[in-house]
## 1
Amino acid sequence: MFGSRSVSVTRVVFVVVTVAFAVLAGRELYASIRTASISIVAERIERGGTVADDVVAKYASRSIEVVDGHYCRSDIVAAGVTLVLAQLDRQNVNVNYDAWAAAASGARQYLRYALSCMPTNSNFWLRLAAVQSTIAEDPVSIAGMMKRSVVLAPHDEMMVLTRFYFWNDFTDATLAAAKRALDSDLTTMLKLGDRCRVNAAIKEISPQLRPIFDRSWASVGDGATARFRQRCSR
C-alpha cells in the first residue's frame, strides 16, 4: 500500500513539474512571437543595414510592449534598447524639438526598465548616462551611471573605447564628478589597449578632456605610451 502511495506521489510531482515547464515554455514562445519583428529590425540596424526612419519610429514605439509584457529576456530587452537609441539618434533637436524630446524621454524610460532586468549590464548604464546627458547635464547623476559602467566592465576593451567616446563629450563638471572612474578608464586604455584602436579613438580630444588625458598619458610613463607613436598600418 505504501509502495502504491509512493508511485502516486511521484506521478503527481512529475505531472506538476511537466505542466510548470510547459507553461514556462509557452510564455517564452509567446514572448518570442510577440517581439519577433522588433528583434528582426534591431538586428538589421546592428548589422549596419538600411532601415527607413518611419520603420525605426514604428518599432521603437512598440518597445513599450516589452515593458508592458514584463519581458526580461536579455535578447528581447537588448533589441528594444537598439531601437529606442536608433530612434533618438535620428532626431534633430533643432528641427523638431517635440519629436526629439519624446524620443529622449522614451529612451531614458526604456533604459531604466532594461537595467531593472539587467542591473549588471555595463553598456546599459553607459547608454543611460549618455541619454541623460542629452536631456539635462546632471553631473552627479551621470557620473554615478558612468562609475557603474566602469566597475562592471573595467577591462573590456570595446566598452572602454566606447566610454571614451562619451567621456570626450561630457562637460567639465561631469568629468570632475567621475574623476576616479575616468582616470581608471584612461589608464586601462593607455596601458592595455590595442594601439591602433586607441590611436583612432584619441585622434580628436575635446578641450575639457585634454588636460585630464595629458595627465594620464604622463602618469603611465613613456614605456606604456611609446608604442602609440608607431605607425599603425591597420
## 2
Amino acid sequence: MYLNNKLISDKIKVVNAIFLNKEKILFLGEYYDGNGFNFGFFYFDLNTKTIEKLNIIRSDSLSFFPKLFLQYTGNFKKYENKIVYVNEKSSNAWVIENTEISEFATKDKTPLPTIINSDNNYYYERGKTYNTNSDFFLTEKNVCVFSNRTENKNEIVIDLYKYNGKYVNNS
C-alpha cells in the first residue's frame, strides 16, 4: 500500500479505499498476515501501522489478488456514519457502520464475473461480465444505485435500497 507515493505497507494490496479521518483508512483488498492471504474489508491505522480485520471474503495460502481485484472493483461512498461499497460488476454491496458490516445483493442478481488467467494476465470472460452498477449515491434513508441491468428498459434505472439492504423501488 502506497500513500502519496510512499510505501506504508508491503503486506497490503488495495482494490479501493476511503479515508475515515486523518488517522484511519477503510479499504477493500488483500492483506498477508504471515499465515496466509486474506481478502476483504480492513481498517488501517496510519499512526500505528496496524490493521484491523472487518470482514474477510476469502482466505487462502496463495494470493488471488489480480482475479479478486477484477471481480470486486467498485466504489466507497460515505453518508454521516455509514459507508457503502457497491461492486460495479456484480450485485454485491456492503454497508459499514463502525465495526459492523452487512452485505446485500442488488435486485438484478448479477453474479461475480468469470476471470480468465492466460500467461499470468487476467481478463474478464466475454459474455459473462456485466457493468451492473454504474454508480450510486447515498441519502439519509437510502442507497440509490444506478443499475444498468434491467430487462424492460433501455436506460439506466435508479434502484433504491434501505441501508439494511431491503429493496424499496426504482425510478
## 3
Amino acid sequence: MSAEAVDDQSPARRRRVRRRVVFLAVLVVLAALCGAPFLPKVANRFGYALPGDRGLPYKIHYNGRDYRSGATCAGARWCEDEKTPEQRARPYCKPRAELRPGSGDSDPGLVRVDEVFTLFGPSHPVFTVGVAPAGTTFTTIVVEASTDCYLTYALMGGP
C-alpha cells in the first residue's frame, strides 16, 4: 500500500467518524426533548398535567393569573418533602359534596371555565364558584383531578 492510498482513506474515514458523532449527538438531543415533557419539573413550570394519579401541577394559569395548590405538584418529590406530617395526613382531594361552594338553595354551584391540558390523557376541567361578571378575578378555582375528586387552587400574588 502506498502512502498516497493511506492519505486518501484518512479523510474519508474522518468524515464517517464525524457523521457518526453528529448522528449520535442528534439522537441524544432528540431523546432529551422527547423525555423532558414527562418530567414533573417541566410540567410544574409550564402548568400542564402529567398522566396518571396526582399528575396535576402545583401551579396553573387561568384568566391571566397564576393559582397554586399545596396538595399536588405533578409527582415531584420536593412537594412531598416540604409537607408537614399534618399536611401529609390530609386527603389528596375532596369530593364535590365537601367543597361547599354555597349553602342551601342559594348554592351557585361550580361553573366550568377552562381546562388543564394533560400530556397523553384527558384534560382536567377548571371551575369557578358561581358566575361572575367579566373581568372578575377569583381568589379560588377548583380543578377536577378525577371522578368526584376536586383540588382547590388559590390565587398567587395580590389582587
